[in-house]
Amino acid sequence: MSIKTLLIDDEQHNLDNLRALLAAYCPQVDVCATARNAETAKSLLYLHHPDLLFLDIQMPGQSGFDLLSSLHNSNVGVIFVTAYDQYAIQALRFAAVDYLLKPVNIDELQAAVERAYRQHRLKEQHQLLQNLVHLVQAGHHQEEQRIALATAKETRFVKTSVIIRCESSNNYTTFYLAGGETLLVCKPIYAYDDLLTDYGFIRCHQSHLVNKKFIKSWKKEFGDFLLLTDGAELPISRGKKEDLKKALRL
Predict the structure, then answer these.
(1) CB-CB contact of 175 with 182 (8 Å)
(2) Record keywords: Nuclease included (predicted)?
(3) What residues are paired with 77 via a beta bridge?
(4) For the chain, which domains are there?
């Protein structure tokens, strides 16, 4: 599992150097984008929902601290990378994962990334536990079960009975709800597969998880598809056919 990372520094050669070091020495890091100012970085944060920032402090316009102060309820990890050591105490107030001085030392970089990776795994485990707690607290009636879905702006507690389907796109999952609302969650679909199986959800394709009660028909012309009550058509992969037939008692 990789940790999605955004690099922010006002000097391009620093970005290029850090990206090269991460590629060579930190394989668990996946650099999704780079930014040279706080304004661009903020847009990229909402676009990519990274797990980790490598953040320069002194930049033209808004500083790295200004950027973090403008983020509300952000759960992203931060490793400060700066040429100056007088900001260390202030960095601690932002609960930074680490504080690296330029030029970056490879051993210190690897240690910082490993700490960030461990923290990321703990956050994921906490989210799964939170989901389990809410499912248990909701009672024994499946239609009242709820799941916690963390979007960029909030954590929504959604009844599993109103989730029509889940669709995967790389490390993101879109939840389609009855009524037409959609929620984009920065987690891969497999994180919800086992969690939702007990509540009537089945996998018809590696990219699709569907609530059985919203299946209208199995279409067999021009390939196999599931037609849902909201009009969506989901492909049925060859490897999922037999499991799907068993789940639908066909």
Answers:
(1) yes
(2) no
(3) 52
(4) 3-125 (3.40.50.2300), 141-247 (2.40.50.1020)
225 with 219: CB under 8 angstroms?
Answer: yes
Q: What is the pLDDT of residues 74-88, one digit of tens each?
A: 678 899 998 887 877
Is the omega angle on the peptide bond into residue 60 within 30 degrees of 0, that is, cis?
Answer: no
State the sign of the Cα–Cα–Cα–Cα dihedral 51, 11, 43, 61: positive
Output helix, strand, coil percentages for the chain, rounded to the nearest 5. 40, 30, 30
User: Is the entire prediction scored with pTM above 0.85?
Assistant: no
Degrees (nearest 5) of the Cα angle 92, 40, 22?
60
Distance CA 25, CA 6 (A): 17
Q: Which residue has the tokens 């994962």?
A: 97
Residue with tokens 């391009």: 12
Tell me the three-class secondary structure of 226-250, residue by residue: EEECCCCEEECCHHHHHHHHHHCCC
- For 100, the enclosing helix (H) or strand (E) is strand 98-101
